[in-house]
Amino acid sequence: MPAPFSTAASLYDRVRRVIPPIEWPAFTDDIEAILALKRERNAVILAHNYQTPEIFHCVADIVGDSLALARKAMTVDADVMVLAGVHFMAETAKLLNPGKTVLIPDLGAGCSLADSITPSDVRLMRQRYPGVPVVTYVNTSAAVKAESDICCTSGNALAIVESLGAPRVIMLPDEYLAKNIAAQTKVEIIAWKGHCEVHERFSPADIGELRAAHPGVTVLAHPECPPEVVAAADFAGSTAAMSDYVARHRPARVVLMTECSMSDNVAVEHPDVDFVRPCNLCPHMKRITLANIRTALEQNSHVVTIDPHVAERARRAVERMLAV
Ligand code: 13P
Ligand code: SF4
Q: Ligand 2 within 6 A of 282 CB?
C-alpha cells in the first residue's frame, strides 16, 4: 500500500515485474492525482485481488478477497470508500458501514452470478423447500441477500453451511461452488444454476495440457470452477487462500485457474515463483480503471445507495456470516 506522500515514480519499483517500463508513463498522472484526491477527500480505496496491478499496488489502501474487503469495510474510519471491484462488493461495504459515502467508479461493473438470480427466485425456492435455510453467496444483489438467512464467500462457504446444523441447505446462486462444497460435507446442498463467466470456462483438459507443457507445475483453482477442474487441481480456495498457498508453499512453478490480474498481483510479492499464465479476464472487474477512480473522487460518482428496508434485512444476512 502506498505511503501517504509517495509519488508515482517511487511506486514503480513495486510493479516493475508486471508493468513494462514503456506502459508506466501512461499511469503516473492518474496515480499522482488519486493520491492527492484521497488526502483531500479523506478517502480510502478498497481493491479486490482481480484489479490490475497499477490499481492494486499503487493506489489501493485495502486489498483482499471478498471476505477480507467486507470485514475491513466495516471498520473504515475515512469519510469515503471507493470500491475498486464490482457492484455487489460496493453494496456489501455500504451495508456494513452505512454512514460512509461508498463510490463505485463504473456502475456497469456487475457479475454474471449476481445477474443469475432475483429476489423472487429466492422466494420460489423457499416455497419449494419449506423450512430449508438459504445460504447466499456474497456475489448477489442486496435485494437477493435480503431474502436469505445467511451469506457466504468462497473463503468461508463450508464453515457457513456447517454452522447452521441443518441436514439440508439451499445454496445460491453458484452451482459449481455449491457442488464443490457438497463434496466436502455431509449436509445435502440444493443448488441454483448460476455460473461465473470467468471460471466456468476452465476445463480439466486445460489442466492436462498445462501439466504436460510444464511438468511439476502446481495447479491452484478457484471454487467457482467446475467440480472436475477443482478435482484435477492440487488445491482449491478463494483468491486469498490461493495467495496464501503461494506464500506458504513457494512452488517453483504455479498456475492460478482464475482471473488474469490475480497472477500479476501475487507475482509482485514472489519474484522467486514462476507463474504460468493461462487465465480468463473478468470484463466487469476490468471496467475499473485509474481514470474512472480519479473521476469518482473528483465528481463523487457513483454513490451507492440501498433501499433502507432491503438494507436492514440484507445486513442481517451479511452480519450473521461475519459472526461465524
Ligand atoms: P473471492 O475473492 O472471494 O475468492 O471471490 C472471487 C470472485 O470472483 C469475486 O468476484
Ligand atoms: Fe462475477 Fe466471476 Fe467476475 Fe467475480 S470473476 S465478478 S464472480 S463474473
A: yes
Backbone angles phi and psi of 88, in degrees to 5: -65, -30
Q: How many CA atoms lie within 13 A of 144 on its CB side?
A: 25
Evaluate whether 96 touches 72 at the Cβ level (below 8 Å): no
Cα(57) to ligand 2 centroid in Å equals 20
Q: In the β-sheet with 168-172, what is the strand arrangement from edge to edge? A: 150-152, 134-137, 168-172, 188-191
pLDDT, mean of residues 179-208:
98
Burial of 248 (0-12, 13-18, 19+ CB in 10 A): exposed
Taking the C-alpha atoms of residue 22 and residue 17, their distance in angstroms, rounded to an integer, is: 13
Ligand 2 mean position to 105 CA, how many Å?
17
| Residue among 63, 139, 158, 198 to mutate when testing ligand 1 (max atoms within 8 A of CB) | 139
Closest ligand to the CA of 156 = 1
Residue 5 has pLDDT above 60, yes or no: no
Nearest residue (by CA) to ligand 2, atom 2, is: 196
Number of CB atoms found within 10 A of residue 68's CB: 19
pLDDT tens by residue, 128-160: 999 999 999 999 999 999 999 999 999 999 999
Q: How far is the CA of 197 from the centre of ligand 2 (A)?
A: 7
68-80 pLDDT, tens digit each = 999 999 999 999 9
Percent of the chain with pLDDT over 90: 96
Ligand 1 centroid distance, CA of 5 (Å) = 31
DSSP 180: H
Ligand 2 atom at minimum distance from 197 CA: 8
Give me the mean pLDDT over the 226-249 stretch.
98
